[in-house]
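Holo model, guanosine-5'-diphosphate. Inputs:
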Amino acid sequence: MASYNNVKFLTSAAKLSQLPSDVGYEVAFAGRSNAGKSSTLNALCGQNNLAKTSKTPGRTQLINLFELDDERRLVDLPGYGYAKVSIAVKEQWQKTLTQYLQERECLRGVVLIMDIRHPLKDYDLAMIEWAVEGNLSLHILLNKSDKLSRGPANTTLLDVEKTLCGYPNISVQLFSAFKKTGIDALKETLDQWLAR
Ligand code: GDP
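Output:
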């Protein structure tokens, strides 16, 4: 299993032209704000401050890139769940996001983080659609599974799996960034996607 503990911040991009050159391997992380994307990246990489967990609503949305080594990167795609962001900003961001998902050659897969108590919201369904259209592999984390007991957590897992069972390149797992539940399964998926 690759070590994700030495992941380092690489750069931020406000638009696609500012991304590093499209070579090597990337895995992107997406999710509605508050689903726990920052906490997941921090848990995965064993660092408390890699991805900031306090965000200012309405500020410029940046794509943050982290590097495992000179060929492999983790990409933090901002969510846009902020009520304060204007429709124009959301539309511009959606355009950037879909373009990234469709055109980025080095993108190997997308990890979509959902709050297990609120799965498959509009944003998630849009991400799933774009991933399917782009022929991308998608791995869904049902995060904050520590908030539910085992029975309800497994019921949600089965429900989500059932909803998405027609898609061969989508996988789903229980996860808790707080308890680090499911972190090995996540790493296995990342290892496969990032294999040279
Ligand atoms: P982001 O907006 O998706 O980056 O979400 P954050 O990582 O900032 O987390 C949003 C909120 O959910 C914060 O209050 C976190 O403390 C909380 N949170 C994140 N992951 C978990 C988890 O696994 N379990 C629980 N109970 N809370 C979590």
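Residues 87-103 form the longest helix (17 residues). The CA atoms of residues 113 and 141 lie 5 Å apart.
Archived with the compound record.
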